[in-house]
Protein 1
Amino acid sequence: MNKIMLFAQLKEDAGKSAIETKAAGKTVGELRDFLEKETPLGNLDGIMIAVNEEFVKDDWIIEEKDVIALIPPVSGG
Amino acid sequence: MNKIMLFAQLKEDAGKSAIETKAAGKTVGELRDFLEKETPLGNLDGIMIAVNEEFVKDDWIIEEKDVIALIPPVSGG
Amino acid sequence: MDSQTERYSRQMLFKPIGPEGQTEIGKKHVLIVGVGALGTHTSELLARAGVRKLTLIDRDYVDKSNLQRQHLFTEKDAEEQWPKAEAAKERLKSINSRVEVEAIVGQADAALLDGLMEDVDLLVDGTDNFETRFLMNDLAQKYKVPYLFGSCVGSFGMAFTIIPGVTPCLQCLIKRLPIQGQTCDTVGIIAPAVQMVTAHQGAEALKILSGNMKAVRKTYVSFDLWENEYLSLKAGALKDSGCLSCGDSPEYPFLQSGREMKVAVLCGRDTVQVRPAESGILPLEQLVSQWRSAGLEVGGNPFLISVVKDGTKAVFFKDGRALIHGTKDMNEARKIYHSLVG
Amino acid sequence: MDSQTERYSRQMLFKPIGPEGQTEIGKKHVLIVGVGALGTHTSELLARAGVRKLTLIDRDYVDKSNLQRQHLFTEKDAEEQWPKAEAAKERLKSINSRVEVEAIVGQADAALLDGLMEDVDLLVDGTDNFETRFLMNDLAQKYKVPYLFGSCVGSFGMAFTIIPGVTPCLQCLIKRLPIQGQTCDTVGIIAPAVQMVTAHQGAEALKILSGNMKAVRKTYVSFDLWENEYLSLKAGALKDSGCLSCGDSPEYPFLQSGREMKVAVLCGRDTVQVRPAESGILPLEQLVSQWRSAGLEVGGNPFLISVVKDGTKAVFFKDGRALIHGTKDMNEARKIYHSLVG
């Protein structure tokens, strides 16, 4: 299983601060598509994805127990 | 082996940001005495000691691979 | 000890800066785009630190609702609706009369910013929208000037230091203009989140300005002060040699004409049309739920939504276009647009 | 929307605060001890956030070397040597005229502080020495009032929220008055380290004042902005039921008479003697090396060391006692003492 940590409005969208899912073997891009379709997170365009505290590209393959973080860039200032 | 992370003036006293030493089996109090005698860190009175990101008392027994942090409370404000 | 040495003595006692670093800081010119919450904090910090010159740009005036988090401003500034850049300048001069402060009251567009870059040593992010950030990002790359990205909303915020030729740029990190509908006007903001971002921007500024490039942070910081979360994320892997802003054949897309947000007063209708730089698909449903939850009056249909904010009605279309009714003021329209979708 | 609602609108839009939380904040009285770098930042933040009352205590006046990091103060305040608490009050009133600000220019000793605690809702640390911190810690426990510990030096700092009956107290965490000789006057301080501490103190203050006790941070934060380090350390295990400040049979040692630093003018000698609350063994060698490295003139022998700072000669004995020569001003002597050993 993989833990997906959520931040800012994603927490509200999901109603919790983390999601558990089986993502091992998926690429980051595939995970993004999966989350958009199967969870209440909605459109993840522009959301940055980190695996084990490191931002990675969409073709990165996720492994068992990797911890994933979804960081929404916010615009305020 | 155990990694001992140093902060603030302890970095300067030691000339580096971390020390490697064999501390497994020692209590935190014994480690403190050892460091005072055997390293350039000098008097560690009032220095707070965390093991694996948790502050512990002097009778806590250190295990192999535990990461230790020495936090000097500073007075400025 | 002369009076300037005494003034900066605590900063010079800090070993990595020292007297040499202080001399370097005293030669530098910093451009701060946006003088809201972030910009007031970083400009005060850099004026106190003793930079040579600060250029401040903001199109807005001080409003009562700014006082909760925007330093430098007083009740009097809000009552008199003083332009933010000018109000900030006045206060900064009383804090450090030796720092040259140039205040520009206007829209930070490509033409204006490009003309200012010549002797700028550092770009600091104080803006409230990604359009201006992508523009700053392109300028940083074109002129090889470090850019301190920062943003916040609610208790959440982030900071990243962009060094041309070394780190990924904003375009490498965020491929498209993000539109999430969370802005300070829809979900609020607490002042400590602002300070947390500016503490990071400020430290990075002092490193860069004093010549301590080795100390520059390589990670992207993201935190939530209410949730007690702090992440420091490695970002190097996102550096993209094909990036149009920082890659091998840069085109600086946000400096191209035609790539800016288009704002036009609609003839005889007391309405301004706003068209974002990048036409994308607005997540209408998410926006509706954000706005409802912020207490705004929202209506619409599958093709458009209307929302009333501070007495002004705005209509948003799926492609990102919006009509701001009841005004002919283009800056006012931009402000409302960004306050609703970021 | 009335004018006060508008003023705090962005803070009320933040869901965990909301209109109810804002009403709570508007009822609260915060006591800030020390109006230097930390105290000016937190007092500005809390005045802007709309607390009912702020009480500010500081014995010192504004000095040119404060301007590099102490918000609220201007060059004029330094030229006129305005007392810090009064200078801060004047600026805070122009920022938020509805907040009651009480400025006390004096030594924050047990007698003074104990007399102020009756309707205080929160104690905020802005002091530069551990003697005053241990005193605040005892008061927090005696009156069951939360205490926001914070401190910084160089680019390093820390913050911890002490909730009586819930978390360990400062005495549980740090058994003895720490003396390391690193102060802002010996190793310097950069302003972003201050903002990093006050961002944490400010967020905790808003949680506590708005009634969001569940959101309060349970970890001890320690960071170094120059080294890009941030630790969040669990501290619960240090809670000590035998602690004399917060344990089962509290004695509040720092509120006992005879437990304060003793300061006395030596008859006919133009010298003040300072004796710390706890006689301990001063690490003379470490102090000598700190002071030398700060560029101070240092002399001495195995029993005592002498040091010259800003034209004043001070002699320190191994037991912590010191003679400050060339002055009869007890506050001046305290200030020099704390600036050299913390």
Protein 2
Amino acid sequence: MNRYSLISTTLVLIISAAVWWQGTSGFKAFTSEAARRIDVLEYPRKLSGLDFENQTFENINFSDYKGKVVLLDFIYTSCPDICYALGFSFKSIKAELEEAGLQEQIQIVNITFNLEQDTPERLSAYVQRYTSDHDMWHGLRLKDPGQLKQLLSDFGVVVIPNEHGGFDHNAAIHILDKEGRLVGIHDYQSQQQIVAQIREQISATVL
Amino acid sequence: MSRSILFFVLFLYLLSYSIIGQWFEVSMVRHVLIQIPCLVLAGYLFGRKSLINNRFLILINDKGLAGILMCIFIGGYWMLPRALDAALAGSNMALVKYISLPFFVGIPLAISWQRIHPIARAVIKIEFLTMLFRLGWLYLVSPNRLCNFYQLNEQIILGKCFLIIATSLSLYWILQLFAEDYREQETLKKNNLYDQASS
Amino acid sequence: MQEIAWTITLVLMLVIIATFVFVVLNSGQVAEYEPVKKRFYSVRTGLFWVLAVGFVVVMLSSYQGMPYAAQHRSENPIGTQVIDVEGFQWYWKLSSNEVKANQPVVFNVTSGDANHGFAIYDESLTLLAQTQAMPGYINKLEYVFKEPGTYKILCLEYCGMAHHSMVSAIEVVAE
Amino acid sequence: MSSSISVIHPNLSAGARKTLLTYLAISAVVFLLMMVFGASMRYEQSEWLGMGPQYFYQIMTAHGIGMIGIVGLAASAVMWFFLSRHVQLSTPILVANLVFFLIGVVLILGAIFIGGFAAAWTFLYPLPAMGKGVWGNHAAASYLVGLLLIGVGFLLLYLDTARGIMKKYGNLGKALGWPQLFFNSQDEAPPSAVIASTMVLIVNIAGIAAGAVVLVLSLVNLYMPSYELDPLLVKNLIYFFGHVFINAAIYQAVIAVYEILPLYTNRPWKPTKVFILSWTLSTLMVMSVYPHHLLMDFAMPKWALIMGQIISYMSGFPVLVVTAIGALTLIYRSGIKWDVTSRLLILSMLGWACGVIPAIVDGTISVNNVMHNTLWVPGHFHIYLLLGLLPMLFGFMYYLVQSNGNKVGAVDDVAFWFYLVGGMGFVTMFLLSGKESIPRRWAAHLSEWVPYDRIASVFATLVVIGALVFAYRFLTRLSRINIATS
């Protein structure tokens, strides 16, 4: 092997390593969903102050939840499958936290991205599937449809309509800390991790 | 002759790039199985036509090592679901895709493939096949969408396509091992570069 | 069944050993190769046909003894006793531990974790029937217990540290 | 007595010679170690040791994968030695295979004896991820990566044999002797070493590719459990790969018999049409017979299982009708020269032929229903391996040791009889235990079964003593091995 080829091979290896390191967040994230999760873990994300209304027609802003740890997911009420799984997962997390006496410290939130169909009434029925406690569990919709893009990009969520009239979207449980910053994103199956992070956030002191 | 190949290359490149680029990218299958291969093929044909005897490239690409590594690593990067998403999310990465696939995958492949050791060539072929099988299988069993911009059912179709392509390709290569006569090929290629490498 | 298998195996292996011993004992004297070759090759042709005929006979007669009937029918006949079996590291979960003798039992066998092997042993520790227990699949094993008594369930697929103590029992009562 | 048997290799380079002898020296040591592991499992079942299940299953895992790996290595050395007389093979690749092998072995041994990994060599999904605190995911990953590296090494070796063979014979079909078989070609058929090597490279490249797919996916599953694999598909791939690899080891080692026995009998053993046909059929059957390991997976398609039984039966034909009879024809009234080499090689033919019988019996679905995963199964494959494959490999080692005038002592003859008697007794006890329904892979046996284990342990000791002498002789005579160039 000649000197020039040695140099070029070394260069190729260095550049490739850099591309892969950068492109996989240090060999940790091979999908953009995983990248999103690692990113918020390392850099808690501030969210825009958008205006919502909930299932009981109250005006809601994320700042209303200040002091509580928020569990949040994105849904549409006619979702046939994944949103159910998310819902039941919330229910079971809620039960576990209630057993530990922590129900005062948390807020559960479903945000719809289907603004055309999901009225507060439908959101109310949706929440009713899992609980009758409409204070602790909110179904939210944006008041201004023009802000949807902002909302989704804040969270890094992508929604694409599918051929059955529904949507494909990131199925994950998001955790906001007591300051309203996005600090965690988890698979809905990993209840242990979720509960662990919630406990950690509850015990964290607010600066 | 040479002009028609260059036109074909340009055609492939424009096919992938222009307005129809959008049409490829809305479908995961078309994106992965048509657009990306087209971009690589454009680079490959251009490289075979115009760069294979380039003195400088031969000098810095002894035994095809640098080129084949670049082709593997950069090509491998574009197999990541995350890279596909990135290409769709912002225009910067889209541009990177249009440049890197022909120039950093197709061309290196063209100028290196005949220069690398025949055993390395066979290993790469087999690794490529098993990678297709693995990816196909993973896409079929993954409970989650791997790309945020594509639906789960498209991912499953792509997984099946991978398995079909891998199966057909292995059958084709196996048949080749029984049908062709490699003695004649060896003598024909006597003055080719890679023969020295195998001794 | 085990006795037959053992006897056939022993006899055939002894025939092979005897052939080898015979040839080895007759290896000292030197003879022309061609006639030897001719003789052995005609033996070979004979052996081929003997084996081929044996092959067809055994293949046809063994078709009846295959244990797959329950797996491939859509519904169990009336009167079939059904037991759901699930293997775990390292215990068996059976929906019932009691069955009646002389009536078919179908075991729906699966696993809750790793692969296991579901095997029925009688009181004298003879293996009567078995199937694999695999996560995500149900293997249907049909068996008719002839005699009342206590039968053992043993694990026959390696499944980790306590594989050998993964034992359970079934009580077979008279009709 | 005629003059000594000649060991000739016209073009063996010093580097290749050294590498091959290293292959065999490592093999001799590992054979012995793995036999001690095997014997210690029987001692444990005899209640003579008190190692407990954790060590037992670790040793069981090590014995299984260790033996499969090392016979693969030793057998490929046999193949390389004889094949390189006919085609040009690459010594650097021979070395690379050994390097990959050793790195893999370190990872596997670390996984087992440091990480506590004990999911059996078969690593059936999802057991590697379910160590239940006995082993962790990293130990399982180390095992899988180790196996993958060993696979890569062998892949390089077989690709090189493929390249060498195709360069000389044109393509794989021609190297298998198809022009002679199907087109009545009057050209001389390729030598048996080439035919056998071609068969082996075909099946092993396919096997290793399947193994590489399943190993990587098992690794993905270890760290990302939400990617659930289909356990039945994984099982199919693992048994395909395992079955092919261990069978291929026999088909490589048997080249030693084809090449060496004619020297002892002064009779030629040339590939005939029947010989070529049987190797072509074996190529197909070795790849399609593996479902006979899945006969108790009722969820498998029924046709696959019936095919498993039919091909199990057919696989016996080439061995019994062609190879065994071929060997006997060669010996009968030949005035064969008797020494440890020729005895071992003839024992190997006997072992291979005998192993067919219990294999076919167990491959019968109705028998499998009461025999599968009893000690009958190790019974049948120990006949193949302990009495068939290992004698081929030890025979090859003695062939080299006794090269061109070197002699061995009477102790080697005694060791042969220890090995023969011990081996036969040992495998018979396995079969008898299988008949008595004793399960395989149990760390502790019920008291009813212990007497069988004790008799087996005595026989196992004899085998180990015999093998100890074989290994000792080979290692101490390494430097005196004398390979002539003409």
